[in-house]
Each structure stands twice: as C-alpha cells, then as structure tokens.
Amino acid sequence: MKTPYGKECKFYYGDYARGHATQECRLLANNSESEKWFPALCQTCPVPDILRVNQCPQLHLYARVDKTLFGLSKKVVVEGFCERYFLETHDLRAGCGHCHELDLEEFEIADS
Ligand code: SF4
Asked: How far apart are CA 8 and CA 21, in angstroms?
C-alpha cells in the first residue's frame, strides 16, 4: 500500500472506505517500546527504499521512533537481521550477503 507520501510500503495500512480514517504503521506497531507512529514519519522513513532494493524474505526489520539530531523533530530508525543466518545486517539495502552464496550452491547442486 502507498504511504501518504506516495511510496510503496508493505507496513503501511490505511482504510478510508465507508467513513473510516484508519492509518497505521504495522512495523512500528510491533515495537511496544517505540514512541507512537504518526503519518508524517513516512515522509523521511528509509523503509520503502530499503524494501525496494532488498526484497529478501529472510530480512527482519525492527523500527523505532527517535529524535533527530537537535531533538526538534522525529524520525524512524531501522535495524535488521537475517533470520536465516542470525546475523545483524548493517547495510539493510544489501542484506547479509549469504543468500547469494546459497542460491549459487543450490544452483550447482540442481545442475549436477
Ligand atoms: S513509517 Fe516507514 S515503515 Fe512505517 S508505514 Fe511509514 S514508510 Fe512504512
């Protein structure tokens, strides 16, 4: 679903049908320790761009709302890890890098 700022995000949910005005971020809703989500956070959130370039199903994302550098506004901070190799993923756009090795191994096994 597209966020109010026009980017596709699988965690965004909006329901405007039949008088509803429901909006939520299902990624931040999973983190009970985070401050509450509000729609303007989608404007600078890095998640849509991460998901656009890294569609690995093993990538598990955690997000929280944090203050910006001078504390004047808020932003979404994202961390992630690979569910297959249990590795923290420092570059979320690139992933942990192991699946490419695995895909190659599976290809070689299937090929022989
Ligand atoms: S805050 Fe980020 S993860 Fe949450 S719905 Fe908006 S763009 Fe998606």
From this structure: 19
Tell me which DSSP letter residue 90 carries: S
Residue 64 is given by DSSP the state E
Radius of gyration of the chain (CA): 17
pTM: predicted TM-score of the whole model, two decimal places: 0.84
User: Residue 99 contacts by C-beta under 8 Å, 6 or more apart in sequence?
Assistant: 56, 58, 82, 84
Atom of ligand 1 nearest to the CA of 7: 7
Residue nearest to atom 6 of ligand 1 (CA): 42
Ligand 1: residues whose CB is within 6 Å? 3, 9, 11-12, 25, 27-28, 41-42, 45, 47-48, 76
How many Å lie between the centroid of ligand 1 and the Cα of residue 25?
A: 5
pLDDT digits (tens, 9 = 90+) for 16-73: 888 788 999 999 999 999 999 999 999 999 999 999 999 999 999 999 999 988 889 9
